[in-house]
Amino acid sequence: MGCLRNSLFGVHAGIYGSGDHSLFVIPIQRDLHLSDTQISLLVGFAFGAFNALFGLPVARWIDGGRRRTIAAIGIAVWSVAASCCGLAANFWQLFFVGSASEPERLGDACRRLTIGGLLPPSRRGAAMGVFYAGILQAADAR
Q1: pLDDT category, 139, cuts 50, 70, 90?
Q2: Rounded (10°) angle between helices 2-16 and 67-85
Q3: How far is residue 22's CA from residue 7's CA, in Å, rounded to a whole number?
Q4: pLDDT tops 50 at residue 40
Q5: CA atoms within 13 A on the CB side of 126
Q6: Which domain holds residue 55?
Q7: Which of the residue ranges 18-22, 29-33, 90-94, 109-113 would you say has the lowest mean pLDDT?
Q8: For the chain, what is the domain count?
Q9: Burial 87-98 (b: 16+ CB within 10 A, else e)
Q10: How many C-beta neighbours within 10 Å does residue 101 have?
Q11: 16 and 98 in contact (C-beta within 8 Å)?
Q12: Residue 104: per-residue pLDDT
């Protein structure tokens, strides 16, 4: 399940432009008539603002709550937000929907903590390697 989730995240990152995988930034910029400043706000500030506002409260929730439920909520919110990115018609819609796609990344902390808690230290490296292999699969698929 983690590899599938990472594959989907890799595709979303390529479309939306996080990290080095900004495949469709120029077409989105052209279609929505966005300036370079607006694009930089979308791929940087929108994600940073969400983490600055909600990072610590969500981390506290992760530490005290059921990690499976929190991860499932994160994936559900991300799925809806990522789908809504395709429906955005202007800068502000894309900004808010893009910010709303951030909870899935916070849910990633649940999965890392779960793997870390289930396995002895000698086996965690291999498990994390398999877990993050989905991102590489998505990159190869493009």
Answers
A1: low
A2: 30
A3: 16
A4: yes
A5: 6
A6: 2-141
A7: 18-22
A8: 1
A9: ebeebeebbebb
A10: 25
A11: yes
A12: 61
Strand, coil or helix: 65: coil
Q: Looking at the whole model, is its pTM more than 0.85? A: no
CA nearest to 109, candidates 67, 64, 138: 67
Q: Are 135 and 10 in contact (CB under 8 A)?
A: yes
Confidence class for position 103, pLDDT limits 50, 70, 90: low
Q: At a CB cut-off of 8 Å and minimum separation 6, what does 21 contact?
A: 10, 13, 14, 139, 142
The dihedral through the CA atoms of 124, 127, 130, 134 has a sign that is negative
Average pLDDT over residues 70-87: 83
CA distance 75 to 5: 8
Q: Distance of alpha carbon 80 from its chain centroid, rounded?
A: 12
How far from 79 is each of 26, 76, 114, 125, CA to CA, in Å? Answer: 23, 5, 21, 28
DSSP 68-136: HHHHHHHHHHHHHHHHHHTT--SHHHHHHHHHHTTHHHHHHHHHHHHHHHHS-HHHHHHHHHHHHHHHH
- With 0-12 / 13-18 / 19 or more C-beta atoms within 10 angstroms meaning exposed / middle / buried, residue 16 is buried
